[in-house]
Amino acid sequence: MAKINCLNPIAACGMDLFNDTYEVVDDFAAADAVLVRSAAMHDLELSDNLLAIARAGAGVNNIPLDKCAEKGIVVFNTPGANANGVKELVIAGLLLASRDLMGGYNWVKENASDENIAKTVEKQKKHYAGCEIMGKKLGVIGLGAIGAKVANIGFRLGMEVYGYDPYVSVDAAWRLSSHVKHIKNVEDIYKECDYITVHVPALDSTKGMINKDAFAMMKDGVKILNFARDILVNDDDMIEALASGKVAKYVTDFPNAKIAGVDNVITLPHLGASTEESEDNCAVMAVKEIVDFIENGNIKNSVNYPACDAGKCSEAARVCVCHKNIPNMITQFTGAFASKGINVSDMVSKSKGDYAYSVFDISEKVKVGILGATGMVGQRFIALLENHPWFEVVTVAASPRSAGKTYEEAVGDRWKMDTPMPEAVKKLIVHNVNEVEEVASTVDFVFSAVDMSKDEIKAIEDAYAKTETPVVSNNSAHRWTPDVPMVVPEINPEHMKVIEFQKKRLGTTRGFVAVKPNCSIQSYAPVLTAWKEFEPYEVVATTYQAISGAGKTFKDWPEMVGNIIPFIGGEEEKSEKEPLRIWGHIDEEKGEIVPATSPIITCQCIRVPVLNGHTAAVFVKFKKNPTKEQLIEKLESYKGVPQELGLPSAPKQFIRYMEEDNRPQVTLDVDYENGMGISVGRIREDSVYDWKFVGLSHNTVRGAAGGAVLCAELLKAQGYITKK
Question: What secondary structure, in 3-state letters, does 283-347 show?
């Protein structure tokens, strides 16, 4: 249990983030981590237990940074914790620069005693007219925590947003809307934009960056906002630009004797972080930094050690080392691991000045068996699991007619993947899938892609589970078994909890069955999930499904060339009902999943002459009718547990929206995010329904084997799949 000490009172909203694995203690010497605001720490004795200090604020003058670095104590602060407060003030600044609200306010105040003010105002108001910001070009210089928020809200306010930051981080890029135009040269912002807002740190390279040279490139009447640092703007040059009319308005949060009172300057008394939420934001950010460091070894916002993000620890163990930044240290570490026969599966090492930080992930792969390994989905499992960081295929099983052959011999010329058969599986001897005990004894869990009747599939998957071998199934047989989770990991990861009820039924301690849903629903169910808050209640969908969903190629099924078949057995029922099960909930008393009752979905499923990729044309009615911009924003910002955990097969961006009129297309887009992402296009208002769209997903990757692999990764991350 990690021990936490608070040298100052820390807001409860932050402290509440510590779970039961943390203990708050009064003894500073016993603490593993310390939270502090203003308390002086220079004279304190730093114990050998202490791993980290987090300052709930930006300044760290009260902390002995060098002393901490020497002892391997990582010191955090909370820059950007008040980003939202600053963002809101910038938006206010945009409006103040556009509409002479201050002038109008002052006129009313000055004429408050005028009995005829109601009539006078009609003549006077023209003096305080301005322009709307909608449709104008906003340039954001610096796309960190504040700049990214400003850029995103600028787009949502109807502005055309240009963003410049040559050093934009991965996190910032993730936060940034795809509608923001990322500019590579700041001069383009100067030349193009009607409004320019600056959000960069005060460095030698940025001091006085807004100067006469910059003004010379800008439009006449440009409006400048500075809520970052006063020294970023050359005051003398700004006063000259205001006098000439080059700059129409200058809004700043940093008044000084030179700029305050100048015509067309709106100065505010540094209000960016002066919100009631400030303390809370800092507390939350500081605690999150401590938790991520203790649980995952990640460093974010440290002032004495380098930033280092290795994601969630997903291997057998993670070793983190604070050390001096000197040659040959990494070689010494890896040599020590090698001498003990320990495999390092991944490594991250970063440096900052005299100090460095290294993270080593120690691997121990889980042994996997493929049931139905010779079929098309089984082959896809084999291809996807080649070089997987967590899973190693050690056993392949198929029908009795394939048993005893090498996998290469059993498949023969029926290998249907675009990539070559992995060398690691070619010489594996195929087991008889019906010899359950024998197969189960060789693996930690299995993927199931067997070609049998539904009753046979249920029986054999339950049989494997009863050997204490988890089964992750691509088959449909168990999708409506009440205590078997049917999961799209980004949508309903919580449904895995029903496994505990299933184990009681099966009489197992670690064996269970989990399934993924039908391939057809992947093209629209995630989209409807992203729009859940708008309450879709009626959906019409037509799916155009590839032949690989039937385990075929055009070589196997030549009659599909140039053909369409308006029937796929059982597919329409699956497409209508399975989303409701995914959106359902666990009934704790019954120990089963209860499907949702809304929205109502009606579906037609059509086989088309396409090898890979299911396309869906979908019409939706909402109880709360959104705008197109809202629909797009919800798609692009949607993410789930796989993205938060950084699971190996998880797409970085689950759903993307494509603006082109003729996208998504199968040939261009089916492999988006290695086949694990969803592509959406053509969101339009409908004359009968509210909105319509087109969705595309890879049916044998996201819709089949890839979806099952992601489920298995989630199960491992949740602790349901382990080594036997």
Answer: HHHHHHHHHHHHHHCCECCECCCCCECCCCCCCCEEEEEEEECCCCHHHHHHHHHHHCCCCEEEE
Dihedral angle of Cα 387, 392, 397, 402, to the nearest 10 degrees: 40
How far is residue 646's CA from residue 659's CA, in Å, rounded to a whole number?
27
Angle between helices 101-110 and 83-98 (to 10 degrees): 70
> Positive or negative CA dihedral for 106, 109, 114, 117?
positive
CA 194 from centroid of its chain's CA atoms = 32
Q: Which two tokens stand for residue 342?
A: 């320990």
486: how many CB neighbours lie within 10 A of its CB? 25
Question: Cβ neighbours of residue 694 under 8 Å, at least 6 residues apart?
Answer: 615, 616, 617, 618, 664, 680, 681, 682
Take residue 51 and report the two structure tokens written for it. 């791993």
β-bridge mates for residue 68, sequence order: none
Catalytically active residues are: 519, 614
Q: CA-CA distances (angstroms) from residue 175 to 144, 170, 302, 634, 677?
A: 9, 9, 21, 13, 18
For residue 564 the two structure tokens come to 């369409």
Residue 445, SS3 per DSSP: strand
Residue with tokens 């197969």: 439
Residue 429 DSSP symbol: B
In 55-116, where does DSSP find H-type helix?
Answer: 65-70, 83-98, 101-110
In the 8-state DSSP scheme, what is residue 704? I
Please, what are the averages of pLDDT over each run of 10 residues along the chain (724 residues)? 94 94 95 95 95 88 94 92 85 92 86 85 82 95 90 94 80 72 92 95 86 96 93 95 95 91 90 76 94 96 94 82 93 76 81 95 88 96 92 96 97 94 97 98 97 96 98 97 98 97 97 97 98 98 94 92 95 97 96 97 98 97 96 96 89 97 97 97 97 97 96 92 88
Structure tokens at 531: 């729009």
Cβ contact 476:406 at 8 Å:
no
Type of residue at 642: P
